[in-house]
What does this fold into?
Amino acid sequence: MSDGPYRSLPMPLRWKTAAKCAYLPSFTTREIADALEHAAERDCRAELSAPFVGRVSALVIGPAEPSLFRDAPEAELNTMHRESASPMEAGFIRNAIDALQDGYRGAEALQRATENMVSDRLLAGFRQVEEHMQREASDGRVRMVRSRLEGAHGQVDLAGIAQRVLRMPDAPSRAPVVTHAGLDDGVPL
It folds into this structure.
């Protein structure tokens, strides 16, 4: 008997926990969303260093006094994009450029870019979990996991994760990830 296909998932423990929450019916949608928030935030913090985030933030927010050269931040962001060290860095810069091109400016552009990067990471994690489940579980269980992940995605606080990734002082605190370990843990009655 298997402990569940999430055990052999070739992802970090935080994603295995999120997959376990989606796979087991004893976890609520809110608990799945909390596990997803934890996994996405940890991925972002692991791949985006504080100096890198600070440099992108400075370029996107820009100086207090706008200059004549409005395209200067985009040009420098394009240079950083070509020199990015990881796919997440490249995605963050690409989302920042897109936000600027969509007309967002300052802190609003930075927030939008970060939320989109976090959403991209969540969706990539969903695809990886679903792909693994496809090989390990029945079609009915795969559909159920997909449905539970999609339902939890709507409850994920992208804005809060973005603020924590940007290391903003007023960022909301993250809810702890719930794990069911004993006989008394389980579906609420």
Residues 54-117 form one domain. The longest helix spans residues 106-136.
